[in-house]
Amino acid sequence: MRRGWTAVGCALFLWACKSAPSGPQPAASASAEPSAAPVPAAPTPCASAAPAEAPPPAGPDPRRYTWLDDKSAGAPAAVDTLLARFPTPPSYERVKVEPGTFGHWLRHLPLAAPKTPVENVKGAIVHPGDDQYLGAVVAIDYGKIDLQQSPDVVIRLHAEWLWAQGEKNISYRSATGLDMPLSRWARGERLETQGASVIWLTKGRPAELDHAEFRQYLNGVFTWANSTSLAQQSDPVQPADLAPGDFFLHTGSPGHALVVLDVAKKEDGKIVALFAQGLNPSQSVHVLQAGRATAWFSLRPGEPVITPHTKEFPWEGLRRLGKPKPTE
Fold this sequence. Notes:
The strands form six sheets. Strands 4, 8, 13, 14, 15, 16, 17, 18 and 19 form a nine-stranded antiparallel beta sheet that branches. Strands 1-2 form a two-stranded antiparallel sheet. By secondary structure, the protein is α+β, with helices and mostly antiparallel strands.
């Protein structure tokens, strides 16, 4: 959360000069509160009200968002973070997220400069930088070919979080049910079609993986994963357990995923959330805006989640990815 700091200098001409702060620091201004009916929400370990977080680092940390140092990726320059850009509405507090979790990682997600437009892989501007429904563009690439489509945004963010932690057990599932672990890619195997299915074939020698090669692995995953396989690999979430890192999912064709980047609550049980998405063809992952006033969306469990540019999301579509289980 951005903080405003003020200081007033006082000069006392008795052989020395001193300066002192003028008093308590005022709180940073917050987005206007969206209207919402009171919603009772049972606190859970992953979605309980939390005290204010410590000030974020001066800028996005490439050690935690490793694509920032991958010059081959072509991501937009990062200038600040989700936490810094989007303070909560008045009287709301962000829910508690433990350091090292996917939700904590998303809360500090690097963002491109304000007014950055949403672009797609064809070079077209999808939403101009001043679009009323555009909150921010995430400072992450969307690839050079049309592979990272809507449900893949969940996989991309989840995989980047695991990679940044040094996790080697990374695996996602194809639409045909095949496990696609990073370990097989590292051994020189590649995904190839065999009739209507996909199989692993050895195509090269084992190699040490850097981020650029990891990104190529993800392109292979995006080629064969879809919303149905994402639903099969994830777990349903109850509305009371909503937490950063969860996502709403439309299965079928076209599939679509809405990523829950952050969640805040009020003492009376009202809930608001920040959402991100990237539609088809491959385009900038972006934070949605509820309108000119705020990027925080009011949520009422039991009522569909309505966001710009897509059909509404029922709460039955709320899901969560955990850490992949060993596949070999």
